[in-house]
Here is the input.
Amino acid sequence: MSATTELVDSTNARLSRRRRLSPWTLLVTASFALLLTGALLLGIWWLASSRTRSAAYYTGPAARTGIEVNVQSGDVTIVGGSQVGVFVNRTDHSVFGHGPREQVVVRAGILHLVSTCPSLVVGSCVSSYRLNVPDDVPISVRADQGNISLDGYHGSADLATDHGAISVEGYCGFVLGAASASGNVTVNTACSPERLILRSDSGTINATVPTGDYQINASSSSGSAHVYGLVNDIGAPWDIQALSNSGNVTVTSGA
Amino acid sequence: MSTLDLSRDRLALHRRFERAARSLAYLGLGLALGVLYLVALPVVLLGDTGATLRRLLQLERTSTNRLLGARIPALPPTVPGSSPERRKIAFLATKLPLTALATAVSLIPGALVLVLVVRASDGFDGSTSYLGPWSLGPLLGLVLLLLASAAFVLCAAALITSGSVLARFSRGALASRADVGVPVREALAERLGDRTLAIAYWLPERELFVDEHGHPVALPEPNSDRSWVAVEHGGRRVAAIIHDAELEARPELVEAAAAGAVLAFENERLKADLRARLEELRASRKRIVEASLETRKQFERDLHDGAQQRLVSLSIDLEVLRGRVEDEASREFVDAARAKLADALGELREFARGIHPALLTDRGLAPALEALALRSPVPVELELQLNQRPASSVEAAVYFVVAEALTNVARYASATHAVVSVTDTREALIVEVRDDGVGGAEASRGSGLRGLGDRVAALDGRLIVESPPGGGTRVGARIPRKHQAGGEPAR
Here is the structure.
């Protein structure tokens, strides 16, 4: 054996000794590699399969007595002032081929719009809606996870979300209910509503109504409650209930 | 007795998970202790005499040693009135954030384990959820359990690593600076809590174990009160740790301690190898000198009992012959023969004395030196302080140093007076011959003094010659006590 070969062999032997890892180190490395590989594969698949699709349709003039929207995951925006029927703009987001499923039914003059998502361990399924609705058709919106906006609507509305904020602008109508379990509730009415029922578990409530006399019940269990520029009159025709468990409550007079 | 191969350690999952559990317990306890330290530190900072700080440090040391096996040595005693050490206070103050960070890092894989197990359980229960593109069923549940096992291993590894880092941090903060850089035996003894611990280094060429001084060591027999662990590195035996058999119940401590010191073992082994070679060389030189001494004694006895006795017998015969001879010329011839015989006998006695003086063997160093002094042509003053008769090799070395020095005094020094002193101290036997001669002697030139230097060096001693020109000569030798085992009191 030549000197060069011996030198190469001895160097290789030294390197192999240096590279030799204990079984425990190998086990830890293999575990880490397994988890990392799984996470990377899932992550890459997630990005590759992520899809966003939009759709718009018109439901026709059938919804004359009510509109009920029930969305499992996603924001809902209601815009009043539609002349005829309901216009729907939908944006769906899906991963791994699992997207939202929609069901639209008109029954006894009530439009039922239901959007559901499968339960995903990794990733999210979202369906966001924008509805142009006619005034004076009572609407009810339920969202498990998502924000609700009501803009320029005249009529009665019942809005509720488990996780998300509720925002109402330019409302004018009889009864407005807005309840959020863990989001803020912000209401700005253009005229004095007959009943304004606002609830929040952990978010703040801000209501701005036209100046006048109201039956006002504004309170918070652990936050502060303030009424500015309004007269609290038990005999007043308009009723405001703004109750929060841990958030601050403010009822303010508008212009 | 167990064999430890540091490069091919087994998985030892049970031991690893036990370490991880102890680290987890340490982290949990550490969070509580961290809060306690933060609460108690103001007391220390507001003029405490050190007692509170010491109690806190002792608490930390105890928990770290028990749960992490950190082997932090005993804390040095507090000097009354001394100001608390900033380093230790800073350590206690950072205990809570550091432990919280280590806990968070360690428990991330732990949280992953929980999530995966819950999802796997959902899969076995027939959940309608999806994991990626797949429906979460029993098969996917099995895969998730496999991933949970991997996450569990990572969690254990993270806990072990956190524990090691915290143990090192605590050791660095609590161990006194005197513990740094101690020899490997002391460090291991401290770490394992066995003061009697010894290390035997393996010399592969001679196939024996030696201690750090190079002396051969016998490993303890099985079932004795001592046990030993062989330390190997890269498949090669390096050393053996001899420890109290009680420690055998915790071999992982010995293994962990040995693993951290394997390079130090290798270094110490090389030193021990060198010392063993030196020891062998020294023993070999001593054996040669002793053999030479025995040969000289035998030669002297042979001359005394053989040729010398025959010559004495011949002298007596000549005396008898002279009485019987009446012729004057024959009588003068016999007288001349007797005179020649007496000269020959004298020369023979002198020769025998030069080989090895019988007086030294028979009566010891003091009479032999007195005889030397009497024969010297230069007046010699003797100062002897001998408590116990030294070994014969030492006696011979001292005798020949004095004899050679006195011969040189007589031949070259032009001295009028010489002093011989022999002092027996607790450490060594010191001999000195000084004269008031012309000086200028050089030990390296004369073969006599050089030979004496070798003879003294064989006994681990040292020969010194000081001879400034015009300042007299001083020849001194110092022989260590360990070679002076004699037995009889000096006469």
Remarks:
- Residues 3-48 of chain A form one domain.
- The CA atoms of residues 63 and 109 of chain A lie 5 Å apart.
